[in-house]
């Protein structure tokens, strides 16, 4: 029998049997609720038999049938509310198990019964750990926690029903992957023992150990993990939103646009192609130029590269933030004939006229330059989400203010951050979140046990710079630009383009993401023990 606790006092399960009752009583349950109508399946135990078995074991029993595929009606919700009040008792210390065929209707009925009403405002549900965000960092952290402590009451707050392997979008835009390969249903990725709250967080109240949800309700926590990711601010560039996905304007930073990138690359046989990179911080700082290198490689293979003027406009003062990898990248810039414009920031787009306007900083000052284009690949400015920037958790940068080693908040000891939303100086990549997850998990368990968190993150970030189809410069580095290669240099020299790195990117890394990272199966990510959070 597989139980899943939605709170410390309410669990759901698939169909149970009469012989399960004594064991449930021994586990401390005080009441059983059948949410499944009699006769749904031929081999289904009837309610009368289960009710008698429950009473013999000293368990209260209630029958609140909800037909499969329907939403519980108002009467069922009202009955469930009264039943819970009786079974949990006046001090709400009882323990209730509700079951149906899969547990879903039992969960839905509980959620509706606990929704606030004018007569009975809902009291906050409490969890050991609340994870805000069901992306790469949030799922990895939750899975790592539950691998270590399966009995933890963990909630994942995530409104999206789809999950995306965003590192794959570069390969979609390069014609290597199909977009569908990078998308899966969120429900299939939520850890089995976790509670999925399908809402968005609208406010943080760390002084009360609460987060506020979109429906106005609150949930309480003993520890909080913030994993919201960052905000892609498309609207920050005037004219961009109106022309995205048409007029030759595209971006690999969106699932629906990455296929358009490849379509434009295939269609363009002469003209001007512009690629942009905004000021830091951004998600995967190498991705803007990866799009360009794959496009140039495709044009070279089609023997049209010499008829296409390629320009890379980067707001940064250098091609890449870690100097060790720049020489190999510059060889490709020169080999593809790319016009490299540093300290050049895209400030507006006129899609109808196909004009991109840049502000460029030169020795003479700032100048405005208009560039006509046939293809424009844009990477938008990126900030912390509004709900983070406007919360007590934000530092001066707007991102969650955490210690860079322990990932623990500088002011709130039971708050941690993971992934892109963390206000740390590491590269914002999925590889960084993979290394952060066990650090966050171990430090939360230390915090809950009254010990000082001591697991440490070294700033590791991995950036596979896809310089051509079949070769990658695998940049791996930590805080301060320190090189942190995973494999020995004789096997893989990350400062040079490599076919092995391409194999890892195309074949190994997606599996490492879906089947290991998101499942809490930690491979080569054991934390150091030197944090001073």
From TrEMBL:
Residues 127-437 form the FAD/NAD(P)-binding domain. This is Uncharacterized protein. The keyword Flavoprotein applies. Keywords: FAD, Flavoprotein, Oxidoreductase, Quinone, Transit peptide. Its cofactor is FAD. One of its GO terms (molecular function) is hydrolase activity. InterPro entries: BLH_phosphatase-like (IPR005939), FAD/NAD-bd_sf (IPR036188), FAD/NAD-binding_dom (IPR023753), Prot-tyrosine_phosphatase-like (IPR029021), Sulphide_quinone_reductase (IPR015904). SUPFAM superfamilies: (Phosphotyrosine protein) phosphatases II, FAD/NAD(P)-binding domain. It comes from Swaminathania salitolerans. Residues 3-115 form the Beta-lactamase hydrolase-like protein phosphatase-like domain. Pfam families: BLH_phosphatase (PF04273), Pyr_redox_2 (PF07992). It comes from the Bacteria. One of its GO terms (biological process) is sulfide oxidation, using sulfide:quinone oxidoreductase.
